[in-house]
Amino acid sequence: MQHSLTITTQSQADVLERVLRVTRHRGFLVQSMHIEHINTQQPASYAIELRVSSERPIAQLANQLVKLFDVEQVQLKQLQAVASPTVAIA
């Protein structure tokens, strides 16, 4: 299964490392990651678009990410099943 999350965090030097560490420890593989630094808010923050894949429930990852002290919000954007490729042997 592939999942897409939007994570809003405080603009801390090591917040990205913590998000990736929790993602890896919960058994999710990062497929893509887009980070935007937002200066218009006070204090400044990051908007992280994270696409991950795993057979584990996405709620497990979302619940752990929201517990990080510098994570402000976690939103599940989309959920889609990824079909495994079929192999024909002749």
Give the fraction of residues assigned to helices. Answer: 10-25%
| Fourth-level CATH superfamily | ACT domain
The appropriate CATH architecture is 2-Layer Sandwich
Written as H for each helix and E for each strand, in order along the chain, the element string is: EHEEHE
Q: What's the arrangement of strands in the largest beta sheet?
A: 2-3-1-4
Helix and strand composition category = alpha+beta
Number of domains: 1
Estimated share of beta-strand residues:
35-45%
Nearest-integer average pLDDT: 86
Q: How many DSSP E strands?
A: 4
Parts with pLDDT < 50 across at least 5 consecutive residues: 84-88
CATH C-level label: Alpha Beta
Provide a count of the helices.
Answer: 2
Shape: globular
Blueprint (SSEs and pairs):
Layout: E1 2-10, H1 15-25, E2 29-38, E3 45-53, H2 58-66, E4 71-80
Describe what this molecule looks like in 3D.
This protein is an alpha+beta fold and 90 residues long. The protein contains two helices and four strands; from the N terminus they run E-H-E-E-H-E. It has a single domain, classed as 2-Layer Sandwich (Alpha-Beta Plaits), CATH 3.30.70. Helices cover 22% and strands 42% of the residues. A four-stranded antiparallel beta sheet has the order 2-3-1-4, with helices on one face. The longest helix has 11 residues. It is globular.
Quick tags:
globular, single chain, 90 residues, alpha+beta, 42% strand, 2 helices, 4-stranded antiparallel β-sheet, Alpha-Beta Plaits
